[in-house]
């Protein structure tokens, strides 16, 4: 592991010489046969496609994409609820940009805005509080999506709103947790995964120690990776070493920002505001304890209760295989709709919408020549 | 303080309208054609092949490092003419101004337009001003139309592109969009990066003088380098392979892209011309660009080929990836 300490400045993580050395090592240690490594995080999917890393992998080593794009796993029921909420008078719906184009069965938020609904794009949930303070006659609903990376910030906004006594804000909570999703993938019979390339940003919050239960229970190695080419290849090297040596366990190839215990403060804030609950993942179904709901003392911030809008589970559009893509059963190009009926211009499934979606990544950067 | 502002009556067609045009706008651009204040202005008798283009400018914020909506409205239209190898002959302008807009800001924009047009030089010969109710506009929108004359024997078109041709660009990419992102302050990013907003007709004139067989040119505005190259590929039927390492990107722009997850290939520019020339003329083309602007950092960034007609990038890692047209703008209202 001595090589890691030598990387100092940022540009080194992109150095072709360094990447090539790591790739050579990968080819040397690869045990042969077929191995499937799942990159859990959408940002990894994008980086792998952008740097063309798939074509550097030894034959038989497949990098498959997982359920780690928050937009992609948000079910149509949430989009439909957001659309219903935007129709209430004097109500503004606030959302991260990527959510605008995700199709629910009732259309998209983008279309609602074009028809006159007050739908605004935000970069941080904290900005909503400023809006709410200025426009007291308007009610603001925040579409709260994301994994452990974004959730603490949203939890903090809720605490702030409480402190400021803001009564004109509420949250449509659709946040998800990574570890329960990994449990669901590992327990599923139709999925075979030999190693997890674990999300760097999420791990900053939850810490690499959080993957121990996965590695130990299922004997699948987990290695946390950063997002530069050298980061990713280094993590794949470590995964292959662990697979070849039959020493699963957890590795951390993103030591410059990820610790074993994570960000305790962020975890505390999350814990204070939310508690885990069963949640629907688009295309995958309901996973126990994989979502978050507001604790009773903050329940008055729940948009669904406040506006009495129900969450109605929807069937996936005919032919859409986003679920199989999110589970790593197929690669995007194996879906019959890919690039034909489903494109970034007219997405059928959510994986084609978000810039982090596997299908969008394959479409934008090609499946590799 | 009684600040001067645009009133709805400034767009009424009555006395106030006339005052705004005569006292505020016309004196800035003063020229014989405009001075007549007629509904149609003469622009001299046409010589050679003429080209015409039009564009509208809705950028937010109106003022940003390296430029403003006024400078942009001249450069953008001049550059569209330049892609045809044309020398600008005349411009027209339409203003749509929101009630309450500060007259001082309008003056600042007019002076910037005037200075840019003078540097070309191209006269602004006719124009129109409308005022819309408060909240029905966003300060000011500007529309400009340009007419240009193309030297004899010059016809730039992607149809002329051939396998083996070199793809040349006149400098680093992404600066305009990066400067707009910082100026908007949505992300609280601070950076000295300035827009590359500049008229490029002189550059194109120099290039076609030295390389008359230049195939085609495109200014890489909205949608960035990737979009214009995709257009050229679709029109020519040939593919283009870019070499990632030879595409210059300033470190500040790179940093902003990294933080926001944007791809510089898709970032808007307002002073970058992509020029396709026969490969043996590539160095002459670069020299012509650098003679026209010694500060330009021009270079060959790719090659036309007759394999699949698509845009690919050879990465620094020896891998290649396909690049498809961006599905929309990464950010709205950048020009």
Summary keywords:
heterodimer; A: 369 residues; 5-stranded parallel beta sheet; B: 335 residues; Phosphoribosyl-aminoimidazole Synthetase, Chain A, domain 2; 2 domains; 4-stranded mixed beta sheet; globular
Structure explained in plain terms:
The complex is a heterodimer of chains A (369) and B (335). By secondary structure, chain A is an alpha/beta fold. Chain A is 38% helix and 17% strand. Chain A is built from 16 helices and 11 strands. In chain A, the strands form 3 sheets. Chain A has a 5-stranded parallel beta sheet with strand order 2-1-7-8-9. Chain A has a 4-stranded parallel beta sheet with strand order 4-3-5-6, with helices on both faces. In chain A, strands 10-11 form a two-stranded antiparallel sheet. In chain A, strand 3, helix 6 (109-114) and strand 4 form a beta-alpha-beta unit. In chain A, helix 2 runs parallel beside helix 12 (229-244), helix 3 (42-50) runs parallel beside helix 16 and helix 7 packs parallel to helix 8 (151-164). The radius of gyration of chain A is 21 Å and the shape is globular. By secondary structure, chain B is of the alpha+beta class. Chain B has 2 domains: 8-150, PurM-like, N-terminal domain (60s Ribosomal Protein L30, Chain: A), CATH 3.30.1330.10; 158-323, PurM-like C-terminal domain (Phosphoribosyl-aminoimidazole Synthetase, Chain A, domain 2). Chain B is 31% helix and 23% strand. Chain B has helices at 15-29, 32-35, 69-82, 103-119, 175-184, 201-210, 224-236, 251-260, 282-292, and strands at residues 49-57, 63-64, 67-68, 87-98, 124-132, 140-150, 166-169, 216-219, 239-243, 273-277, 299-305, 311-314, 320-323. In chain B, the strands form 3 sheets. Chain B has a 7-stranded mixed beta sheet. In chain B, helix 3 (69-82) packs parallel to helix 4 (103-119) and helix 6 packs antiparallel against helix 9 (282-292). The longest helix of chain B has 17 residues, at 103-119. The two termini of chain B are 32 Å apart. Chains A and B meet through helix 2, helix 3 and helix 16 of A and strand 13 of B.
């Amino acid at each position: 592991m001595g090589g890691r300490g030598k990387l100092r400045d940022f540009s080194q993580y992109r150095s072709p010489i360094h990447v090539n050395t790591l790739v050579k090592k990968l080819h040397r240690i690869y045990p042969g046969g077929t191995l499937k490594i799942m990159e859990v995080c959408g940002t990894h999917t994008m980086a792998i496609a952008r740097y063309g890393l798939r074509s550097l992998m030894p034959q038989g080593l497949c990098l498959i994409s997982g359920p780690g794009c928050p937009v992609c796993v948000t079910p149509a029921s949430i989009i439909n609820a957001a659309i219903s909420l935007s129709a209430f008078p004097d109500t503004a719906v606030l959302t991260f940009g990527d959510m605008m184009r995700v199709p629910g069965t009732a259309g998209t938020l983008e279309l609602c805005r074009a028809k006159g609904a007050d739908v605004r794009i935000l970069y941080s949930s904290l900005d909503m509080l400023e809006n709410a303070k200025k426009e007291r006659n308007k009610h603001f609903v925040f579409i709260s999506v994301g994994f452990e990376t974004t959730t603490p910030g949203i939890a903090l906004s809720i605490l702030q709103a409480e402190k400021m006594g803001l009564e004109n804000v509420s949250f449509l909570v659709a946040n998800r947790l990574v570890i329960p999703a990994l449990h669901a993938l590992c327990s599923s019979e139709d999925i075979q995964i030999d190693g997890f390339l674990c999300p760097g940003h999420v791990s900053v919050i939850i810490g690499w120690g959080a993957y121990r239960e996965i590695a130990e229970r299922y004997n699948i190695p987990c290695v946390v990776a950063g997002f530069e080419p050298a980061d990713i290849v280094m993590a794949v090297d470590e995964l292959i070493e662990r697979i070849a040596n039959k020493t699963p366990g957890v590795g951390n190839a993103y030591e410059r920002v990820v610790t074993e215990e994570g960000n305790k403060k962020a975890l505390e804030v999350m814990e204070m505001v939310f508690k885990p609950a069963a949640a629907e993942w688009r295309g995958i179904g309901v996973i126990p304890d994989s979502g978050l709901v507001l604790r009773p003392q903050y329940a008055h911030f729940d948009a669904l209760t406040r506006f009495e809008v129900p969450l109605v589970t929807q069937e996936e559009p005919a032919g859409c295989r986003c679920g199989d893509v999110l589970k790593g059963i197929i690669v995007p190009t194996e879906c019959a709709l890919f690039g034909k009926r489903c494109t970034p211009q007219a997405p059928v499934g959510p994986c084609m919408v978000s810039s982090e979606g596997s299908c969008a990544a394959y479409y934008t950067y090609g499946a590799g020549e | 303080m009684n600040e001067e502002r645009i009133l709805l009556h400034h767009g009424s067609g009555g006395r106030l309208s006339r005052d705004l045009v005569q006292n505020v706008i016309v004196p800035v651009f003063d020229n014989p054609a405009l001075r007549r204040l007629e509904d149609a202005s003469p622009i001299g008798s046409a010589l050679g092949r003429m080209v015409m283009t039009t564009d509208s400018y809705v950028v937010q914020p109106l003022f940003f490092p390296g430029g403003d909506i006024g400078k942009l409205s001249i450069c953008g239209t001049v550059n569209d003419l330049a892609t045809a190898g044309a020398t600008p002959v005349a411009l027209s302008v339409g203003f749509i101004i929101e009630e309450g807009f500060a007259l001082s800001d309008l003056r600042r924009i007019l002076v910037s337009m005037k200075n840019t047009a003078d540097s070309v030089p191209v006269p602004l010969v006719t124009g129109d001003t409308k005022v819309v109710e408060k909240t029905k506009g966003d300060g000011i929108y500007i529309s400009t139309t340009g007419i240009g004359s193309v030297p004899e024997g010059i016809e730039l078109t992607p149809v002329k592109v051939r396998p083996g041709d070199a793809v040349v660009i006149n400098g680093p990419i992404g600066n305009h969009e990066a400067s707009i992102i910082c100026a908007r302050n949505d992300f609280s990013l601070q950076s000295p990066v300035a827009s590359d907003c500049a008229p490029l007709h002189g550059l194109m004139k120099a290039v076609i003088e030295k390389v008359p067989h230049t195939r085609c040119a495109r200014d890489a505005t909205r949608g960035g380098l990737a979009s214009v190259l995709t257009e050229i590929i679709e029109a020519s039927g040939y593919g283009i392979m870019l070499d990632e390492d030879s595409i210059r990107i300033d470190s500040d722009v790179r940093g902003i892209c990294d933080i926001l997850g944007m791809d510089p290939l898709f970032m808007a520019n307002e002073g970058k011309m992509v020029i396709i020339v026969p490969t043996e003329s590539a160095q002459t083309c670069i020299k012509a660009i650098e003679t026209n602007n010694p500060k330009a950092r021009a270079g060959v960034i790719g090659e036309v080929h007759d394999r699949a007609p698509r845009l690919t990038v050879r990465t620094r890692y020896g891998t290649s990836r396909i690049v498809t047209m961006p599905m929309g703008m990464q950010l709205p209202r950048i020009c």
